[in-house]
Amino acid sequence: MGEIKKIKSIPVFDFSVIIGVISAILSFISGIIYFIVGYGVLYSLSTYIISLNNETAAVVNSVASSITAMGAFYLIIVWPILMFFVSFIVAAIATLLYNYLAPRIGPIKLELE
């Protein structure tokens, strides 16, 4: 059996940055996956619409390419940045709450070997 340590407080900024970076990385990876899947669905749908009516081919292709470009920008660039800031704020609030409540309720205990 190992030594039991208590987490009396957590450094707010360091913890929040770590959580924000992890969230941004996971959002970036999921954004790439969503983009690839969404692009495949959009391509299949546009191909189906074009096969129904050749007159709409140019319109459908331009709309599909602009949606794909906006979606890629949003999913791969904007979403991870947004998730970093949201996760940073939520982690900071949770850490401040833990640091406030730990002395009153009792700290988390970890068994280390």
What is the typical, i.e. mean, pLDDT? 84
**What proportion strand?**
5-15%
How is the main sheet built?
2 strands, antiparallel
Instruction: Note the run of SSEs as H and E.
Output: EHHE
| Discrete helix count | 2
Structural class: mainly alpha
Q: What's the overall geometry?
A: elongated
Q: Level of helix content?
A: over 70%
3D architecture notes:
- With 113 residues, the protein is mainly α.
- The protein has one domain (28-108).
- The protein contains two helices and two strands, in the order βααβ.
- The protein has helices at 12-52, 57-105; strands spanning 3-7, 108-112.
- It has a two-stranded antiparallel ribbon with strand order 1-2.
- α1 packs antiparallel against α2 (57-105).
- The radius of gyration is 23 Å and the shape is elongated.
- The mean pLDDT is 84.
Question: What would the keywords be for this entry?
Answer:
mainly alpha, 2 helices, elongated, two-stranded antiparallel sheet, 113 residues, 80% helix
Give a nutshell description of this structure:
The chain contains two helices and two strands, in the order E-H-H-E. The chain is mainly alpha-helical.
List the helices and strands and how they pair.
Blueprint lengths: L2 E5 L4 H41 L4 H49 L2 E5 L1
Antiparallel strand pairs: 1-2
